[in-house]
Amino acid sequence: MPKKQHERASGMRTASPNSTSQTSISSDGDLITEAQIPSAVEDVLTSTPFVDIHTHLYSPAFGKLGLWGIDELLTYHYLEAELFRSSDIKPHQYWALSKREQADLIWQALFVETTPISEATRGVVAALNAFHLPTDRLDLTEARSFFKAQSYESHIQRVLEMAGISLVVMTNDPLDPEEAPVWLNGVTNHRQFRAVLRLDRILCTWSAHWQLLASQGYKVDEQASGHSAAEVRCFLMDWHKRMQPVYMAVSLPDTFGYPQDTVGNRLLTEAVLPACRELNIPLSLMMGVRKQVNPALRLAGDAAGRADLRALENLCRDFPENRFLVSVLSRENQHELCVYARKFSNLMPFGCWWFMNNPSIVEEITRERIEMLGTSFIPQHSDARVLEQVIYKWNNTRRTMAGLLTGSYRLLVEDGRGVTRREIQRDVTRLFRSNAESWTGLREPAADPPTRT
Ligand code: FIX
Ligand code: ZN
Is residue 385 in contact with ligand 1, taking CB distance under 6 Å? Predict the structure, then answer.
């Protein structure tokens, strides 16, 4: 519809530089013209530092657990999965190689002999390009010497700056044999990293891990009978003191059901959810993983399955005092997750997780979330496992979001209401910061780490 005509039709005025209505939302007079919307959206997205609500990154205190640099970027499990489709090497032969040999092989197969147009390969190109490193070399000599020359702490600051994120939320497993000792020795807080208490070994593989709790003095047994749930709750409270997690989290298989009489569900309802209520932090449910469909690929061996979200419906309804931070791994679950979020205000959808984190799907998911939830959701997380991944993952998010938000504001103008830059700032801040901050323990500053116990 031509501009003039649709203005008459909608009876609204787009901004004229001196519009100064005193009774409307735009009384501060900064209505922007339709033509100004794209640049205003882009400016706000670029200038607003985001919270990365779910990653597998670690603060410097965790030493070697924190992955960074070109060899780690290339041996990312997303790329390992792609390698086996473009090389004759078999997984068992690949695993026998050194990290350096694996990276060389992946570079050769996916970046030299193949054009890196997949999401994960293009991401490595974008990360190299962000540091003004050549992206088309036949080998990794220059990239390796660049990363070797970086000092980790200042490199972290530089990378977070480049990615436009002010806070990284980690994934921390109190039963991980490498990570637990770091916590038990006392971890210095880092102002840009916050912890999450990850519960997979308790809620999903209790039979293989209950003895770890027993060995730490908690009176639990394999059937989680008697006082086991109360003891698990003590375990959670003890680790909350150590980690100060901003939420608790678990990744659930596509077969997860609730209600269902399982050890995991008993611990969920009698230990985890009460502890989350007492601590006033949400539980993150990441639903729909088909674990190890091809074990030969190790971390790359997981797949996606459609979950039965009636389990989520039942949890949100049965535990109205708990908050659920939810991401689903199947594209088929995304729309119903939006519908459930409209039914339960204690449900916060977040991110385009893992196999969903591709522009074609991110665009579809985020559009339907804006259409059904406005700005009451958390659009994205990086799930980064290697530090420099946040650069391309968040650049991709800003690129996709710019088009989506511009389209949303243009529709608003066409349908009869102007928009101000202040409102765009408010929306982007809510989507990428305050929804996460208000919903999790991020709203409180990290307490001083407890003395060594
Ligand atoms: O459970 C999770 O936190 C998943 O994100 C990971 O297990 C997965 O390997 C991953 O990193 C996906 O991006
Ligand atoms: Zn993850």
Answer: yes
